[in-house]
Fold each of these.
Amino acid sequence: AGYLRTTGQWLLISPSEIPSECVRNFHSQMITKAHRSITSQSIEKRNLSSLVFAIHEEDIPKAKELITEFNKKLSQLMTAREDKNKVYCFSTQFFSLEEEQ
Protein backbone atom coordinates (compact mmCIF):
# COMPACT_ATOMS: atom_id res chain seq x y z
CA ALA A 1 0.00 0.00 0.00
CA GLY A 2 1.25 3.45 -0.86
CA TYR A 3 0.85 6.76 0.88
CA LEU A 4 -0.14 10.17 -0.43
CA ARG A 5 1.22 13.33 1.15
CA THR A 6 0.37 16.91 0.31
CA THR A 7 3.18 19.33 -0.43
CA GLY A 8 1.05 22.36 0.32
CA GLN A 9 1.95 23.72 -3.11
CA TRP A 10 -0.56 24.74 -5.80
CA LEU A 11 0.34 22.80 -8.94
CA LEU A 12 -0.55 24.11 -12.39
CA ILE A 13 -0.45 21.21 -14.81
CA SER A 14 -0.47 23.32 -17.95
CA PRO A 15 0.49 26.89 -17.06
CA SER A 16 0.92 27.95 -20.67
CA GLU A 17 -2.43 26.41 -21.68
CA ILE A 18 -0.62 24.32 -24.30
CA PRO A 19 -2.30 20.91 -24.41
CA SER A 20 -0.12 17.85 -24.12
CA GLU A 21 -0.89 14.18 -24.65
CA CYS A 22 -0.33 13.44 -20.94
CA VAL A 23 -2.79 16.15 -19.85
CA ARG A 24 -5.34 14.95 -22.40
CA ASN A 25 -4.97 11.35 -21.19
CA PHE A 26 -5.35 12.38 -17.55
CA HIS A 27 -8.57 14.33 -18.20
CA SER A 28 -9.94 11.53 -20.35
CA GLN A 29 -9.33 9.05 -17.52
CA MET A 30 -11.00 11.33 -14.96
CA ILE A 31 -14.04 11.82 -17.21
CA THR A 32 -14.28 8.02 -17.61
CA LYS A 33 -14.10 7.56 -13.83
CA ALA A 34 -16.77 10.25 -13.32
CA HIS A 35 -18.98 8.47 -15.84
CA ARG A 36 -18.57 5.17 -13.98
CA SER A 37 -19.38 6.87 -10.66
CA ILE A 38 -22.91 7.61 -11.94
CA THR A 39 -23.84 3.96 -11.45
CA SER A 40 -21.16 2.70 -9.05
CA GLN A 41 -21.32 5.31 -6.25
CA SER A 42 -24.17 6.52 -4.09
CA ILE A 43 -25.27 10.14 -4.31
CA GLU A 44 -23.79 10.67 -0.84
CA LYS A 45 -20.31 9.90 -2.23
CA ARG A 46 -20.45 11.94 -5.45
CA ASN A 47 -21.66 15.22 -6.92
CA LEU A 48 -22.07 15.61 -10.66
CA SER A 49 -23.63 18.78 -12.01
CA SER A 50 -23.67 20.84 -15.19
CA LEU A 51 -24.58 24.35 -16.21
CA VAL A 52 -25.40 25.14 -19.82
CA PHE A 53 -25.71 28.81 -20.76
CA ALA A 54 -25.17 31.29 -23.55
CA ILE A 55 -22.30 33.74 -23.03
CA HIS A 56 -20.37 36.42 -24.88
CA GLU A 57 -16.92 35.26 -25.98
CA GLU A 58 -15.30 38.30 -24.32
CA ASP A 59 -16.37 36.83 -20.94
CA ILE A 60 -14.47 33.55 -21.43
CA PRO A 61 -11.19 34.77 -19.83
CA LYS A 62 -13.08 36.03 -16.75
CA ALA A 63 -14.94 32.72 -16.45
CA LYS A 64 -11.64 30.82 -16.59
CA GLU A 65 -10.16 33.16 -13.98
CA LEU A 66 -13.11 32.50 -11.62
CA ILE A 67 -12.74 28.73 -12.12
CA THR A 68 -9.03 28.93 -11.24
CA GLU A 69 -9.78 31.01 -8.12
CA PHE A 70 -12.41 28.51 -6.96
CA ASN A 71 -10.06 25.56 -7.58
CA LYS A 72 -7.37 27.21 -5.42
CA LYS A 73 -9.83 27.93 -2.59
CA LEU A 74 -11.24 24.40 -2.66
CA SER A 75 -7.74 22.94 -2.68
CA GLN A 76 -6.76 25.05 0.35
CA LEU A 77 -9.87 23.94 2.23
CA MET A 78 -9.42 20.26 1.41
CA THR A 79 -5.70 20.16 2.23
CA ALA A 80 -5.89 22.08 5.54
CA ARG A 81 -6.77 19.02 7.62
CA GLU A 82 -3.99 16.63 8.62
CA ASP A 83 -6.08 13.43 9.12
CA LYS A 84 -7.21 12.76 5.54
CA ASN A 85 -8.66 9.32 4.83
CA LYS A 86 -10.15 9.50 1.30
CA VAL A 87 -8.94 10.51 -2.17
CA TYR A 88 -11.38 12.44 -4.37
CA CYS A 89 -11.12 14.10 -7.76
CA PHE A 90 -12.73 17.46 -8.44
CA SER A 91 -12.90 18.24 -12.16
CA THR A 92 -14.38 21.17 -13.99
CA GLN A 93 -15.19 21.21 -17.68
CA PHE A 94 -15.77 24.52 -19.41
CA PHE A 95 -16.07 24.13 -23.16
CA SER A 96 -18.08 25.23 -26.16
CA LEU A 97 -20.99 23.04 -27.16
CA GLU A 98 -20.68 24.31 -30.71
CA GLU A 99 -19.10 22.01 -33.25
CA GLU A 100 -15.58 22.94 -34.33
CA GLN A 101 -15.31 23.96 -37.97
Amino acid sequence: MSAFKIFHNSRCSKSRQALQILQDSNCDIEIINYLETDLDVSLIKDVLKKLSLKPRDILRTSEQDYKDNNLKEDDFSDDDLIDYMFKHPKLIERPIVIKGHRAVLGRPPENVLELI
Protein backbone atom coordinates (compact mmCIF):
# COMPACT_ATOMS: atom_id res chain seq x y z
CA MET A 1 0.00 0.00 0.00
CA SER A 2 1.31 3.44 -0.93
CA ALA A 3 2.07 5.87 1.83
CA PHE A 4 0.75 8.79 -0.25
CA LYS A 5 -2.11 9.10 -2.70
CA ILE A 6 -2.43 12.04 -5.03
CA PHE A 7 -5.56 13.00 -6.93
CA HIS A 8 -3.70 14.13 -9.99
CA ASN A 9 -4.33 15.82 -13.31
CA SER A 10 -1.20 15.76 -15.44
CA ARG A 11 -2.42 18.78 -17.40
CA CYS A 12 -2.40 20.92 -14.24
CA SER A 13 0.86 22.65 -13.35
CA LYS A 14 0.04 22.74 -9.60
CA SER A 15 -0.67 19.03 -9.67
CA ARG A 16 2.61 18.31 -11.47
CA GLN A 17 4.49 20.48 -8.96
CA ALA A 18 2.93 18.69 -5.97
CA LEU A 19 3.77 15.31 -7.50
CA GLN A 20 7.35 16.47 -8.07
CA ILE A 21 7.68 17.47 -4.40
CA LEU A 22 6.57 13.98 -3.37
CA GLN A 23 8.92 12.34 -5.86
CA ASP A 24 11.84 14.52 -4.77
CA SER A 25 11.16 13.42 -1.19
CA ASN A 26 11.32 9.75 -2.28
CA CYS A 27 7.74 9.13 -1.16
CA ASP A 28 5.85 5.98 -2.06
CA ILE A 29 3.05 7.42 -4.21
CA GLU A 30 -0.15 6.09 -5.70
CA ILE A 31 -1.24 8.40 -8.50
CA ILE A 32 -4.99 8.58 -8.97
CA ASN A 33 -5.89 10.15 -12.29
CA TYR A 34 -9.24 11.19 -10.92
CA LEU A 35 -10.57 12.41 -14.27
CA GLU A 36 -10.05 8.92 -15.72
CA THR A 37 -10.89 6.84 -12.64
CA ASP A 38 -14.43 6.19 -11.51
CA LEU A 39 -14.80 7.95 -8.20
CA ASP A 40 -17.63 7.08 -5.88
CA VAL A 41 -19.57 9.24 -3.48
CA SER A 42 -18.15 7.51 -0.39
CA LEU A 43 -14.58 8.18 -1.58
CA ILE A 44 -15.35 11.87 -2.13
CA LYS A 45 -16.89 12.07 1.36
CA ASP A 46 -13.85 10.32 2.85
CA VAL A 47 -11.46 12.74 1.14
CA LEU A 48 -13.48 15.72 2.38
CA LYS A 49 -13.35 14.35 5.93
CA LYS A 50 -9.56 13.94 5.70
CA LEU A 51 -9.26 17.47 4.34
CA SER A 52 -11.56 18.81 7.07
CA LEU A 53 -13.33 20.78 4.34
CA LYS A 54 -16.85 21.16 3.02
CA PRO A 55 -17.71 20.25 -0.59
CA ARG A 56 -18.00 23.90 -1.60
CA ASP A 57 -14.40 24.44 -0.40
CA ILE A 58 -13.01 22.19 -3.13
CA LEU A 59 -15.22 23.19 -6.04
CA ARG A 60 -13.48 24.60 -9.10
CA THR A 61 -15.65 27.64 -9.72
CA SER A 62 -14.05 28.38 -13.08
CA GLU A 63 -15.21 25.11 -14.63
CA GLN A 64 -18.00 25.21 -17.20
CA ASP A 65 -19.88 22.46 -15.29
CA TYR A 66 -19.97 24.79 -12.27
CA LYS A 67 -21.52 27.55 -14.37
CA ASP A 68 -23.86 25.29 -16.35
CA ASN A 69 -25.32 23.82 -13.15
CA ASN A 70 -25.61 27.17 -11.35
CA LEU A 71 -23.58 25.80 -8.44
CA LYS A 72 -22.90 29.33 -7.22
CA GLU A 73 -26.37 29.30 -5.71
CA ASP A 74 -26.51 28.58 -1.98
CA ASP A 75 -29.48 26.25 -2.12
CA PHE A 76 -27.38 23.12 -2.76
CA SER A 77 -26.79 20.76 0.15
CA ASP A 78 -23.40 19.17 0.76
CA ASP A 79 -24.79 15.91 -0.63
CA ASP A 80 -26.03 17.72 -3.75
CA LEU A 81 -22.56 19.17 -4.34
CA ILE A 82 -20.90 15.79 -3.79
CA ASP A 83 -23.28 14.27 -6.35
CA TYR A 84 -22.20 16.92 -8.85
CA MET A 85 -18.54 16.14 -8.10
CA PHE A 86 -19.28 12.47 -8.71
CA LYS A 87 -20.95 13.24 -12.04
CA HIS A 88 -18.43 15.92 -13.05
CA PRO A 89 -15.03 15.16 -11.47
CA LYS A 90 -13.52 18.23 -13.17
CA LEU A 91 -15.31 20.18 -10.45
CA ILE A 92 -12.92 18.79 -7.81
CA GLU A 93 -9.98 21.04 -6.99
CA ARG A 94 -6.59 19.48 -7.48
CA PRO A 95 -4.22 18.22 -6.47
CA ILE A 96 -5.32 16.50 -3.29
CA VAL A 97 -2.66 14.54 -1.43
CA ILE A 98 -3.60 11.94 1.17
CA LYS A 99 -1.46 10.24 3.78
CA GLY A 100 -3.27 7.99 6.22
CA HIS A 101 -6.10 9.88 7.89
CA ARG A 102 -4.91 13.31 6.71
CA ALA A 103 -5.06 15.13 3.42
CA VAL A 104 -4.12 18.52 2.02
CA LEU A 105 -5.11 20.51 -0.99
CA GLY A 106 -1.94 21.12 -2.99
CA ARG A 107 -2.63 24.79 -3.65
CA PRO A 108 0.00 25.96 -3.27
CA PRO A 109 1.92 22.75 -4.03
CA GLU A 110 4.14 23.30 -0.97
CA ASN A 111 1.14 22.36 1.19
CA VAL A 112 2.07 18.70 0.61
CA LEU A 113 5.14 19.24 2.79
CA GLU A 114 2.77 19.19 5.78
CA LEU A 115 2.30 15.45 5.20
CA ILE A 116 5.94 14.51 4.59
Amino acid sequence: MNSKELSIEASLQAKEIKKLEKWLRMFLSVSSIFLVIAYWGMQGEGTRFAVGITGVVLTVICILLAAVINLGIKKGRANVRRMLKLAEKENV
Protein backbone atom coordinates (compact mmCIF):
# COMPACT_ATOMS: atom_id res chain seq x y z
CA MET A 1 0.00 0.00 0.00
CA ASN A 2 1.19 3.48 -0.72
CA SER A 3 0.90 6.38 1.70
CA LYS A 4 -2.32 7.72 0.17
CA GLU A 5 -4.04 4.34 0.48
CA LEU A 6 -2.82 4.01 4.07
CA SER A 7 -4.19 7.46 4.91
CA ILE A 8 -7.56 6.59 3.38
CA GLU A 9 -7.68 3.27 5.24
CA ALA A 10 -6.75 5.02 8.50
CA SER A 11 -9.57 7.54 8.06
CA LEU A 12 -12.06 4.77 7.32
CA GLN A 13 -10.98 2.88 10.41
CA ALA A 14 -11.24 6.06 12.48
CA LYS A 15 -14.86 6.42 11.34
CA GLU A 16 -15.56 2.84 12.40
CA ILE A 17 -13.96 3.51 15.78
CA LYS A 18 -16.41 6.39 16.24
CA LYS A 19 -19.25 3.93 15.61
CA LEU A 20 -17.80 1.55 18.18
CA GLU A 21 -17.65 4.40 20.69
CA LYS A 22 -21.40 4.93 20.20
CA TRP A 23 -22.01 1.22 20.79
CA LEU A 24 -19.88 1.38 23.93
CA ARG A 25 -21.92 4.27 25.31
CA MET A 26 -25.12 2.42 24.44
CA PHE A 27 -24.07 -0.77 26.23
CA LEU A 28 -22.97 1.17 29.30
CA SER A 29 -26.29 3.04 29.38
CA VAL A 30 -28.31 -0.14 28.97
CA SER A 31 -26.27 -1.87 31.67
CA SER A 32 -27.14 1.00 34.03
CA ILE A 33 -30.82 0.50 33.29
CA PHE A 34 -30.52 -3.24 33.88
CA LEU A 35 -28.68 -2.54 37.13
CA VAL A 36 -31.61 -0.44 38.37
CA ILE A 37 -34.01 -3.23 37.34
CA ALA A 38 -31.82 -5.75 39.17
CA TYR A 39 -31.81 -3.65 42.32
CA TRP A 40 -35.57 -3.20 42.16
CA GLY A 41 -36.14 -6.90 41.59
CA MET A 42 -33.91 -8.03 44.42
CA GLN A 43 -36.07 -6.08 46.87
CA GLY A 44 -39.12 -8.26 46.22
CA GLU A 45 -40.23 -11.85 46.10
CA GLY A 46 -41.47 -14.26 43.46
CA THR A 47 -41.72 -12.83 39.96
CA ARG A 48 -40.13 -9.56 41.01
CA PHE A 49 -37.10 -11.47 42.34
CA ALA A 50 -36.87 -13.38 39.03
CA VAL A 51 -36.85 -10.05 37.19
CA GLY A 52 -34.02 -8.96 39.50
CA ILE A 53 -31.97 -12.04 38.66
CA THR A 54 -32.60 -11.42 34.96
CA GLY A 55 -31.47 -7.82 35.46
CA VAL A 56 -28.23 -8.99 37.07
CA VAL A 57 -27.52 -11.40 34.21
CA LEU A 58 -28.26 -8.78 31.57
CA THR A 59 -26.12 -6.22 33.40
CA VAL A 60 -23.16 -8.60 33.42
CA ILE A 61 -23.65 -9.40 29.72
CA CYS A 62 -23.77 -5.71 28.79
CA ILE A 63 -20.65 -4.95 30.83
CA LEU A 64 -18.77 -7.83 29.19
CA LEU A 65 -19.82 -6.64 25.73
CA ALA A 66 -18.74 -3.11 26.63
CA ALA A 67 -15.35 -4.46 27.72
CA VAL A 68 -14.90 -6.29 24.41
CA ILE A 69 -15.90 -3.19 22.44
CA ASN A 70 -13.52 -1.07 24.53
CA LEU A 71 -10.69 -3.48 23.72
CA GLY A 72 -11.57 -3.20 20.03
CA ILE A 73 -11.47 0.58 20.24
CA LYS A 74 -8.04 0.55 21.90
CA LYS A 75 -6.62 -1.91 19.36
CA GLY A 76 -8.21 0.06 16.50
CA ARG A 77 -6.70 3.35 17.65
CA ALA A 78 -3.28 1.71 17.91
CA ASN A 79 -3.71 0.32 14.40
CA VAL A 80 -4.65 3.74 13.02
CA ARG A 81 -1.59 5.29 14.68
CA ARG A 82 0.66 2.62 13.13
CA MET A 83 -0.83 3.17 9.69
CA LEU A 84 -0.38 6.93 9.92
CA LYS A 85 3.25 6.54 11.07
CA LEU A 86 3.89 4.17 8.19
CA ALA A 87 2.27 6.62 5.77
CA GLU A 88 4.48 9.43 7.10
CA LYS A 89 7.60 7.33 6.62
CA GLU A 90 6.62 6.63 3.03
CA ASN A 91 6.06 10.33 2.36
CA VAL A 92 9.48 11.35 3.67
Amino acid sequence: ATNLTGTSALFFQGDAAFAPVAFDDGLGCVSGTTVRLGTKGVALNSAAYPGAGDPSISARAALPLAGGTYYYQCLYRDSPAGFCTPASSNRTNGIGVHWIP
Protein backbone atom coordinates (compact mmCIF):
# COMPACT_ATOMS: atom_id res chain seq x y z
CA ALA A 1 0.00 0.00 0.00
CA THR A 2 1.36 3.41 -0.91
CA ASN A 3 0.53 7.06 -0.26
CA LEU A 4 -0.34 6.25 3.36
CA THR A 5 -0.32 8.60 6.32
CA GLY A 6 -0.05 7.79 9.99
CA THR A 7 2.14 5.13 11.56
CA SER A 8 0.34 1.81 11.02
CA ALA A 9 -1.70 0.00 8.40
CA LEU A 10 -4.08 -2.94 8.85
CA PHE A 11 -4.31 -5.35 5.92
CA PHE A 12 -7.45 -7.48 5.64
CA GLN A 13 -9.19 -9.92 3.30
CA GLY A 14 -12.88 -10.52 2.65
CA ASP A 15 -14.67 -13.17 0.63
CA ALA A 16 -17.17 -10.70 -0.87
CA ALA A 17 -17.16 -7.24 -2.41
CA PHE A 18 -19.90 -4.63 -2.48
CA ALA A 19 -20.44 -1.23 -4.04
CA PRO A 20 -18.17 1.28 -2.28
CA VAL A 21 -19.65 2.75 0.90
CA ALA A 22 -18.31 5.87 2.65
CA PHE A 23 -16.32 4.77 5.68
CA ASP A 24 -14.49 7.51 7.61
CA ASP A 25 -12.32 9.36 5.05
CA GLY A 26 -12.39 6.53 2.50
CA LEU A 27 -14.57 3.93 0.85
CA GLY A 28 -15.12 0.41 2.11
CA CYS A 29 -15.67 -2.25 -0.53
CA VAL A 30 -14.59 -5.52 1.13
CA SER A 31 -17.11 -7.59 3.07
CA GLY A 32 -18.28 -11.08 3.85
CA THR A 33 -16.15 -13.20 6.13
CA THR A 34 -13.10 -11.06 6.84
CA VAL A 35 -9.64 -12.08 7.97
CA ARG A 36 -7.22 -9.67 9.58
CA LEU A 37 -3.96 -10.43 7.81
CA GLY A 38 -1.69 -8.20 9.85
CA THR A 39 -0.80 -4.73 11.02
CA LYS A 40 2.37 -3.17 9.65
CA GLY A 41 4.25 0.02 10.34
CA VAL A 42 4.15 2.80 7.75
CA ALA A 43 7.57 3.91 6.51
CA LEU A 44 8.10 6.41 3.71
CA ASN A 45 4.29 6.49 3.26
CA SER A 46 4.18 2.76 2.41
CA ALA A 47 3.46 -0.56 4.10
CA ALA A 48 3.35 -4.16 2.88
CA TYR A 49 2.05 -7.53 3.98
CA PRO A 50 3.50 -10.13 4.20
CA GLY A 51 6.86 -9.01 5.53
CA ALA A 52 9.91 -10.98 6.58
CA GLY A 53 8.87 -13.75 8.97
CA ASP A 54 5.13 -13.45 8.21
CA PRO A 55 3.11 -16.35 6.83
CA SER A 56 2.03 -16.00 3.21
CA ILE A 57 -1.38 -14.49 2.54
CA SER A 58 -2.77 -17.88 1.48
CA ALA A 59 -1.51 -19.51 4.70
CA ARG A 60 -2.58 -16.67 7.05
CA ALA A 61 -6.08 -16.55 5.53
CA ALA A 62 -6.33 -20.37 5.32
CA LEU A 63 -7.41 -20.20 1.68
CA PRO A 64 -8.97 -23.42 0.42
CA LEU A 65 -6.92 -25.64 -1.87
CA ALA A 66 -9.55 -25.14 -4.59
CA GLY A 67 -8.78 -21.41 -4.63
CA GLY A 68 -11.44 -18.75 -5.15
CA THR A 69 -11.84 -15.01 -5.43
CA TYR A 70 -10.98 -12.86 -2.42
CA TYR A 71 -10.85 -9.13 -1.87
CA TYR A 72 -8.20 -7.05 -0.12
CA GLN A 73 -8.01 -3.60 1.38
CA CYS A 74 -5.87 -1.70 3.86
CA LEU A 75 -7.05 0.56 6.69
CA TYR A 76 -4.75 3.32 7.93
CA ARG A 77 -4.81 6.41 10.15
CA ASP A 78 -5.03 9.88 8.68
CA SER A 79 -2.33 12.27 9.71
CA PRO A 80 -2.59 15.10 10.49
CA ALA A 81 -5.96 15.10 12.21
CA GLY A 82 -8.63 17.11 10.42
CA PHE A 83 -7.92 15.66 6.98
CA CYS A 84 -11.11 15.77 4.87
CA THR A 85 -13.59 14.86 7.61
CA PRO A 86 -13.40 14.66 11.41
CA ALA A 87 -12.71 10.93 11.01
CA SER A 88 -9.19 9.71 11.67
CA SER A 89 -8.87 6.74 9.32
CA ASN A 90 -8.91 6.01 5.62
CA ARG A 91 -8.79 3.01 3.30
CA THR A 92 -6.80 2.15 0.23
CA ASN A 93 -8.43 1.10 -3.01
CA GLY A 94 -9.70 -2.47 -2.83
CA ILE A 95 -8.49 -5.23 -5.10
CA GLY A 96 -9.94 -8.60 -6.06
CA VAL A 97 -7.62 -11.59 -6.53
CA HIS A 98 -8.59 -14.92 -8.07
CA TRP A 99 -6.51 -17.66 -6.45
CA ILE A 100 -6.09 -20.85 -8.47
CA PRO A 101 -4.88 -24.27 -7.29
